[in-house]
Amino acid sequence: MFLKPQSVFKTGQFVSINLLNLSKMMGKNNNEYALVTGATSGIGLELAKLLANDGYNLVIVGRNQETLNNTAAQLKSSGVKIATFNKNLFYPDDVYSLYAELKVNNISPSVLINDAGQGLYGKFVDTDLNRELDIISLNITAVIILTKLFLKDRVDKGYGKILNLASIASTSPGPWHSVYHGTKAFILSWSEAIREELKDSGITITALLPGPTATDFFNKALMNNSKIMEDWENFSTAEEVAKDGFTAMMKGDDKIISGLKNKLTVAMSNLSTESMAAHRMGEMQKPQSQKD
């Protein structure tokens, strides 16, 4: 026997709550929603699992409804409500319409996870400009729009949490992956700036800086022939990174570098000149076919 969904979305869909799991919601944040982009795989999916296990209802966003439905099926065992939205965050209009539909359905997420992001491998002179402009739209523009709309909604309420996916790529120039590194440098700097602006608002902003993580990111970025992939067996898992990010966000920390090796990498970058850091990263990311 299942409960009826409480609302009907135009493009969003509720996943029903099994009555046997209803008790899991009691005493948790069962009136709170978390909005998670990139929730259908990788770090975003693991963050969604952690939020659901903590009792947060979920709004998950993706471009493929079938994938969204499969993800919702995985998550509903936690006994929370899950709303799926088929939106393409490469397009600003889809980002705006997402929040408009949340308002229509009286959903005011108190947690925002800006996880969705992509990269593109290759020398900048050779890479596809239109693809890179799309990546800038996803990695920066969509994050800015969602964060602005979240803050406009939450500031008067006096509480909320934002987790922005930066990267250790944000701390160093990135030859062979230059646009991605540039977008993540923006996300880190901007997150720290608005965190300061919001320090007395009750809303915290945390930046998560993972290093290389065993997800489909590298395949989508066409990086399978990069030298960095030779160390695949030592990459962090999405679960490890998500746990670090979730813990830091819940504590209200300003940022977290996930993993000891990545902390050392960032420390080395901080001690280097920009040109030295760029050279070191270029050597790490150049094609495997290029000789040392």
Write the layout of secondary structure elements.
Elements: E1 12-15, H1 22-25, E2 33-37, H2 42-53, E3 57-62, H3 65-75, E4 82-86, H4 92-104, E5 111-114, H5 129-154, E6 160-165, H6 178-197, E7 203-209, H7 217-220, H8 238-251, E8 255-257, H9 260-271, H10 274-285
Parallel strand pairs: 2-3, 2-5, 3-4, 5-6, 6-7, 7-8
Antiparallel strand pairs: 1-4
Helix pairs in contact: 2-8, 4-5, 5-6
Structure characterization notes:
The model is unreliable at 1-11 and 14-28 (pLDDT under 50). This protein has helices at residues 22-25, 42-53, 65-75, 92-104, 129-154, 178-197, 217-220, 238-251, 260-271, 274-285; strands spanning 12-15, 33-37, 57-62, 82-86, 111-114, 160-165, 203-209, 255-257. It starts with 11 loop residues before the first strand and ends in a 7-residue tail after the last helix. The chain has an eight-stranded mixed beta sheet, with helices on both faces. The radius of gyration is 19 Å and the shape is globular. It has a single domain (12-285), classed as 3-Layer(aba) Sandwich (Rossmann fold), CATH 3.40.50. It contains ten helices and eight strands. With 292 residues, the protein is of the alpha/beta class.
